[in-house]
Write a structure and sequence with these properties.
Oligomer: single chain
Radius of gyration: 31 Å
Structural class: alpha/beta
Mean pLDDT: 89
Number of strands: 14
Largest sheet: 5 strands, mixed
Distance between the termini: 119 Å
């Protein structure tokens, strides 16, 4: 090249560099604009998440958060630091006798301390602003989940720059993967975990990509922040093992390159050291947490992480020795690579044998127990659920995966692998979409930005057209996602609406208040496990089972009692004795009252009650009560529950034939479907009774005079309500509950919560007479 050309080229490069150099004031302006956008996104996210409080009041949502509130109150008795130490010392052996009667429960070894401890910290801060403890723990999940927005910006920024960060932050405002349990009142693990885990992933990536010596600081931060997730949510197990899987895959790729005598595309010091420190962070928090302890470190819960630790040490030694001793290392890698992989697979496989419960159900859906299956959030994801969670963003995530492979970018590989792994678990159990969001949101933003950059590298017209098309696709994805997100933000808390679709009602609050004021302080209440926390924490009475489901035998006994024959008095007494003689029974059954004019049918105006409309009561749950109690699916559908038609709609009602009526012969059904309950219902009285209209269940046979065999005779028959096609139970089977059950309370206004007192003197007398009768 001539001297003139060289000078000319140098001038062009100099001019080009000068053109693309951004003045400091413009940089400052850009950062101020981005900061303003992030603040705006965060405030909008907080406002959306605060909506349930604004609409319905200061209530904690769902069931599990109530035990978190209870434990926050216990920690506050000791103080912020001493309360945490109290928990880490297993509560000094504290047994809380309001739960799991008669044994009680030590919640410090059943739950992790993070949520309740952060509740203490939130109260310590917010109390200075005039908020009490209840209000503080209600606000905490909304604050933490809104904080995901700036955390996601940081993650996206370190992944692919400011535009990736901005887009990831905006998507975090509305995505249902964050919002579904991020609203005010969800004082549980998920909203707090999502914030902490997002920071943990960001610090992990920061450590991998930094060029200066501060990378080790971020590796330490990654270890601490990721380790803290252990104290918050059991899904820390995914993160712990995921980092190990990522490390194994990258190191395995490098070893394969060595075996082929190829050069290595990057150094491994940051990769291995960051992983080892992060693994040590998880391990340290696991070891000191009473719920887990040292045994968890060597169990299947950390199977992939343990394998990765062994593999990373071996791989690190081989890779570091390769430049100095290639002739030795290459044969060693070739001959022993398979052996090392087999060893890693064996460690992982053996560790999985000790995994159980919902963790095993997430790994292997076919291995779910009946209790795990009975929980709606553990069911497999439907196409509709997948669509409103990930919308039509799949092409962007797929491109992120392809780009990560082509570019060998470690952050992109990490996010891509996380998206794949979390997508599998989210398809296995619907609640794990909350885990998928940690990876899918930044992967979507990264893929979109990279596709736009690729489009703009083409000719201007073509590039702008492609970029506009990509923008339209992304906009559609936003619109598809925003609608269910807004619906979630305005849903009432479950304590004021325990049905689907949600209907705000004070029935449960009324029932729990009645329980608290009208039963002895030591009263024990038998119910299905869903309501255990509410009974113990709000009702301040002792429950037999709750949402922790730590005693499957007790839950099976409760299911067996509810599905037993209420008139087999000796059997009922035996089952109650096995349950240590509870004093009260609480059941929940929503229904809707429909006034119907049947004058044309000779029945006049009547009221028809349709059970499980809205849905969510114990009749629907009775299928799982029976399954957990040991009954087969075929037996249940031919003994307890039957489908029926009301017009063009299919509903489920108690099974009935000419000799067996489940509404009478099954304890749970006889307690919920009898006339005493209906007569005590305010909504029935105000709609039907006061207007002189008789009330019937939709499956109840209405007494009707029909012509007999010849024209001169008449006969009394029981016919179904017009428009109903299904099993019919004669009305006289539904007159009253079993004689040993005394109805003491029906909730207002809808009558959906029902409480009975068990009369043991009557039951014992009936059981004795029944035994004597059988003996004769």
């Amino acid at each position: 090249m001539s001297r003139a050309k060289t000078i000319s080229k140098a001038r062009v490069e100099t001019i080009t560099q000068a053109v693309i150099t951004i003045p400091p004031d413009i940089k400052i302006t850009q950062w101020i604009a981005m900061l303003s956008a992030i603040v705006s996104f965060t405030l909008l996210a907080y406002y959306l998440r605060l909506y349930p409080v604004l609409l319905y009041g200061w209530y904690i949502n769902e069931f599990d958060p109530y035990i978190r509130l209870f434990m926050t109150e216990q920690m506050l008795k000791y103080g912020t630091i001493k309360g945490l130490l109290w928990w880490l010392h297993k509560g000094y052996g504290a047994i809380f006798t309001h739960f799991w009667y008669p044994w009680g429960a030590n919640w410090t070894i059943i739950l992790s301390p993070g949520v309740s401890w952060l509740g203490v910290l939130a109260y310590k801060v917010l109390s200075h602003l005039g908020f009490d403890l209840l209000q503080s723990v209600i606000l905490l999940p909304a604050i933490a989940n809104a904080a995901v927005v700036p955390a996601m910006f940081y993650l996206g920024y370190r992944l692919g720059g400011k535009y990736v960060g901005l887009l990831a932050a905006l998507w975090s405002v509305f995505t249902t993967m964050f919002l579904q349990r991020g609203t005010a009142g969800w004082f549980a693990a998920e909203p707090i975990f999502q914030f902490i885990a997002t920071l943990g992933i960001a610090f992990y990536i920061e450590s991998l990509i930094r060029k200066d010596n501060y990378w080790i600081l971020f590796a330490v931060l990654s270890a601490i922040i990721n380790g803290i997730t252990t104290w918050v949510w059991g899904s820390y197990v995914f993160l712990w093992n995921f980092y190990g899987l990522f490390t194994i895959i990258v190191l395995l790729y490098l070893l394969i390159r060595i075996a082929r005598r190829q050069s290595l595309p990057f150094t491994i010091d940051k990769l291995v050291i960051t992983y080892i420190l992060t693994d040590l962070g998880f391990s340290a928090f696991v070891a000191i947490t009473p719920r887990y302890g040292f045994h968890t470190l060597v169990s299947g819960m950390g199977g992939v992480a343990n394998a990765a630790l062994i593999f990373s040490i071996i791989a690190y030694a081989l890779i570091k020795l390769y430049p100095r001793y290639p002739r030795i290392v290459v044969p060693v890698v070739r001959y022993f690579l398979v052996a090392v992989v087999v060893l890693v697979v064996a460690v992982i496989g053996l560790s999985f044998t000790s995994v159980g419960g919902k963790f095993l159900g997430a790994l292997l859906p076919l291995a779910r127990s009946a209790i795990v299956q009975s929980v709606a959030e553990h069911s497999p994801s439907t196409l509709q659920q997948s669509m409103y969670n990930v919308s039509i963003t799949i092409p962007f995530v797929v491109y992120t995966m392809l780009f990560s492979v082509m570019s060998l970018s470690l952050p992109a590989i990490l996010i891509s692998l996380g998206s794949l792994a979390a997508a599998y678990f989210a398809s296995s159990e619907v609640w794990l979409f909350m885990l998928l969001g940690l990876f899918w949101v930044p992967a979507t933003a990264y893929g979109f930005v990279k596709l736009v950059e690729l489009a703009l590298d083409r000719r201007i017209l073509v590039g702008l057209s492609i970029a506009a098309l990509l923008g339209i696709v992304l906009a559609i994805a936003f619109v598809v996602n925003i609608q269910p997100a807004l619906s979630m933000s305005i849903m009432p808390q479950q304590i004021v609406s325990t049905v689907t679709p949600p209907i705000p009602t004070p029935d449960w609050l009324d029932a729990l208040q009645w329980l608290s004021y009208n039963t002895p302080p030591n009263a024990t209440v038998l119910s299905w496990w869903d309501y255990g926390y509410w009974i113990a924490v709000i009702g301040n009475r002792t429950s037999l089972a709750d949402n922790s489901t730590v005693n499957s035998t007790q839950i099976a006994l409760i299911g067996s009692f509810f599905m037993s024959n209420p008139y087999n008095y000796t059997g009922v007494l035996e089952k109650l004795n096995e349950l240590h003689d509870p004093q009260y029974i609480l059941i929940f059954e929503p229904y809707t009252v429909f006034p119907v004019n049947l004058t044309n049918y000779g029945l006049g105006s009547i009221c028809v009650l349709i059970p499980e409309y809205p849905a969510g009561g114990d009749f629907a749950k009775s299928y799982w009560m029976a399954r957990i109690a040991g009954y087969t699916n075929n037996y249940i559908l031919n003994t307890f529950i039957s489908p029926a038609q009301v017009g063009s709609s299919t509903i489920y009602v108690p099974y009935a034939n000419n000799t067996f009526y489940a509404a009478y012969n099954v304890t749970l059904y006889s307690l919920m479907f009898n006339s005493e309950v209906i007569d005590a219902s305010y909504v029935v009285w105000s709609t039907c009774t006061i207007n002189g209209m008789p009330t019937y269940w939709v499956f109840e046979g209405v007494p009707t005079i029909m012509p007999g065999v010849n024209a001169t005779s008449l006969k009394l028959t029981y016919v179904g309500i017009p428009g109903y096609n299904g099993p019919i139970t004669p009305w006289y089977y539904l007159l009253q509950p079993p004689p040993w059950a005394q109805l003491v309370y029906v909730s207002r206004p809808y009558g959906w919560v029902i409480i009975y007192k068990i009369n043991y003197s009557v039951l014992e007398a009936l059981a004795r007479n029944q035994t004597l009768t059988r003996a004769h």
